[in-house]
TrEMBL record:
Pfam family, one: Pyr_redox_3
Keywords (A to Z) from UniProt: Monooxygenase, Oxidoreductase
Gene3D superfamilies: FAD/NAD(P)-binding domain
Needed cofactors: FAD
Name of the molecule in the record: Flavoprotein
GO terms for MF: monooxygenase activity
């Protein structure tokens, strides 16, 4: 893909050895085996999120049947599993396909520069021993996730600096933190807080302090349908049917919530009431102010979150923090909590491209100022694909549709002897299209960090991601010429 007889180190370089990077490596080996590639991973092991996060109870918030790879189906009995099991699954998947041999660990990419004269990307890399090195490739796939690995979201919590006890953020959970017989307050109401509450069983008491409630649905850790099907069908057939069932479940659940929000809210709150102690009032702790799936629906396996509340080991307080003193949390309602440990489970700091500095011919390039093409490439950015998953389904499904689209682009580039592909939005399009949010969620951390993502528009290849089957159909058979400039 390079011009002027300059030879790249690799045809393709993948950044990130998490779900997105490993899946893309497999798809490329499947569709484009003639291309050379390597994976650059900043951490010491495979896993991405599942290597970084070590807080108690860390687990998937999607079913493993769709969160796992299509090419290596999840065969475990549990629908939702611990993070260490997910990381091992990723490691085993990479080893099975020989992908692990292509990974260069402790290689942190600091900067990417595109050269129009050579039609190549140059990577400025820091290795484990802090030495600098560079690599070159004709094509880049960024499987870097959507949040900042180095810095958590700094929530505005008044007086938090006054607290004399321990303050912990789940993203950097201390391995030696002793919470035995301590009073713990978790600030937040998202998936992390809902996971932590039932997991800190050695604490004297755990309180989840939230500004507003979240929808929390119980999901069986082992489904009867999956158990029966695994016994009566051959393994490969059972795996396919089970995966398809969970894809349908996710699609219909989200669709029903958005089409019939009142009915969905009634159903979810009715199921919540069944899991709480008798005569427990749902107000104010369990009735969200928003409709289902305006924010991500949280799951708890076998209702463990509600079981913790029934046991008396955990509780919820809904209110606004007035200030935090040296030993307490004062709420505007007048109530006061006295924790030994505060956990700030207030969300993630959103980040695109893993915080890598990107330049084109030495000139700075800012992704948030440009529109995304097929939710995979960004206008004006040559030969580079970013992987994003779904916010209303498993991440892996979105990453896979992106990977298959990228492989199709690579195949077509070689077929047409094209060196460069770059998205371009026509001037008339820019004047007529309406801007849309890239992520359709109203969560606080998305509102705060949504400007880290590229822009989306109301029509054409600039629309935000929709749902898996449509995106997969576009990836395999849709138009890949509209909005994309092909240069020989």
């Amino acid at each position: 893909m390079a011009a002027h007889n300059e030879i790249p180190d690799f045809d393709v370089i993948i950044v990130g050895a998490g779900i997105s990077g490993i899946n893309f490596a497999y798809r490329m080996q499947e569709s484009n085996p003639e291309l050379s590639y390597c994976i650059l991973e900043a951490r010491h092991e495979i896993g991405g999120t599942w290597s970084l996060f070590q807080y108690p109870g860390i687990r998937s918030d999607s079913d493993l049947y769709t969160f796992g790879f299509a090419w290596r189906p999840w065969t475990g009995k549990n629908t939702i599993v611990h993070g260490a099991i997910i990381r091992q699954y990723l490691e085993d998947s990479a080893a099975q396909e020989g992908i692990d041999r292509r990974i260069r660990f402790c290689h942190k990419v600091n900067k990417l520069n595109w050269s129009s004269s050579s039609n190549m990307w140059t990577f400025d890399i820091t290795t484990q021993d802090t030495e600098m090195m560079s690599l070159r490739s004709g094509f880049v796939f960024l499987g870097t996730g959507y949040y900042d690995y180095q810095e958590p979201l700094q929530a505005d919590i008044p007086g938090i600096h006054n607290f004399k006890g321990k303050v912990v953020h789940p993203q950097f959970w201390p391995g030696d933190l002793d919470y035995t017989d301590k009073s713990v307050v978790i600030i937040g109401s998202g998936a992390t807080a809902i996971t932590l509450l039932p997991s800190l069983t050695r604490a004297a008491h755990v309180t989840m302090l939230q500004r507003s409630p979240t929808y929390i649905a119980s999901l069986p850790s082992q489904g009867a349908f999956e158990t029966i099907l695994s016994k009566i069908l051959p393994c490969f057939a059972a795996n396919r049917v089970i995966r398809f069932k969970w894809m349908l479940f996710s699609f219909f659940m989200v669709s029903i919530c958005r089409l019939f929000p009142r009915a969905a809210k009634f159903f979810l709150l009715r199921e919540t009431a069944k899991l709480l102690p008798p005569d427990f009032d749902l107000e104010p702790d369990f009735v969200p102010s928003y409709s289902p799936w305006e924010q991500r629906l949280c799951f708890c396996p076998d209702g463990d979150f509600y079981a913790c509340i029934r046991s008396g080991k955990g509780s919820i307080n809904t209110g606004t923090i007035e200030t935090i003193t040296a030993s307490s949390i004062k709420l505007t309602s007048g109530k006061e909590l006295y924790p030994d440990i505060i956990v700030t489970a207030t969300g993630l700091k959103l980040c695109t491209a893993g915080g890598i500095t990107i330049t084109i011919d030495g000139e700075p390039y800012e992704i948030p100022k440009h529109f995304a093409w097929r939710a995979a490439m960004v206008e004006g950015l040559p030969n580079l694909v970013l992987s994003w998953g779904y916010v209303d389904a498993s991440w892996t499904l979105g990453a896979d549709s992106t990977a298959q689209l990228a492989c199709r682009l690579l195949t077509q580039m070689r077929k047409e002897s094209v060196s460069v592909i770059v998205p371009r939005m026509m001037a008339e399009e820019r004047q007529t299209l309406e801007e849309r949010p890239f992520l359709a969620l109203k969560a606080t951390y998305v509102k705060k960090g949504g400007n880290a993502f590229p822009k989306a528009a109301s029509a054409g290849p600039w629309q935000p991601r929709s749902y898996f089957w449509r995106d997969l159909a576009i990836a395999r058979w849709g138009d890949i010429k509209g909005g994309l400039e092909w240069l020989k």
